[in-house]
Amino acid sequence: MVSRPTLKDVGAAAGVSVYVASRALRGESGVAQSTRARVLEAASQLGYVRNEMAASLKMKSSHTVGILTASGRNQYYSMLAQAIDNTLHEYGYFAVTTDMIKDRTNTQESEGESVRLLLEQRPAAIIATYALRPESLEIIESMRIPVVFVDSPPAKAGVYPFVGSDNYQAGRLAGDYLGRLGHKHAMILAFPKTWQTFEARVRGFKDAAKEWDMDVQVRETQGNDPESAYIELGDLLGNHAKAQWPDAVFALNTMMVLGAFRAMKERNVAIGQDVSLIAIDDFDWAPMLDPPLTVIAQNMEEIGRQAGRFVVDAIKGNSLNGQQLTIAVKLIERESCRDRNLPLAERGRNQ
After folding, report:
1. Fewer CB in a 10 Å sphere around the end CB: N or C, the chain?
2. Is 71 buried (19+), middle (13-18) or exposed (0-12) by CB count in 10 A?
């Protein structure tokens, strides 16, 4: 049986010591570019694959960064994780992702299991997209592993570094937009308030609604998933006369708008005519819906880039002192919201 090439083999083929070969393969400083290229070429020709787990046992940590996501079903998190991973690669790290949501809920058991799985990889740092429970943070801190929060701020403000969207601005932009279009009876289709982004998005929308004399009802779903949103909005549409429907629905994220779209389509609600629909998060499929969906877009690329930089700084031992970085959002207007200041026929011609 042919044995696997070792680091010693790579060093010998490149004409350098094992120490230099190791530093070159890890992308560390102090190695000349020509030497690094020679080592990488030797490793490629020999078919050498670095054993990250074995290396981590020797180094007490690895070049792995763990990402704890809050819902693998939500495309937002997969895109965010990809943006983070792209930045980490620039610094010689790579991401391992695990989902804290099991059976559509985040329990203490599911969160604890996800944290333990990541810690077994001996990560250099952890990125959390959900405010972790104190028990989870205690375990991570006991291992002296830095934590950066992304998307959902931590329960203890000012203690841990955080990067995320301006959620208040997101809600306010949506409320102001619907107000300018003449809406007077809006509904917020909201995931459970246990999610940290709930409060700021709802508050921003309500503050804008007051300025336009628009009344707002908040319908909180059982879970942060399309099925829960479908049931909640479907119940309202199915059990109330059309005159009692809201004239606009603001979906707090992708999971909510997927359920809303299905509920409205199945009940023959003319989206953008009978009821306007606006949501937070923009994706490739949003312009292809019928009608194309108006959204408040988060800058996931920038969030991921800044989160990656925060993590690398934390790994290097740089004190971030609970630094908070808020990324602006923007309105992308399409055709799912009706301008009620115009007659219906004229609105159709203008679209």
Report:
1. N
2. buried
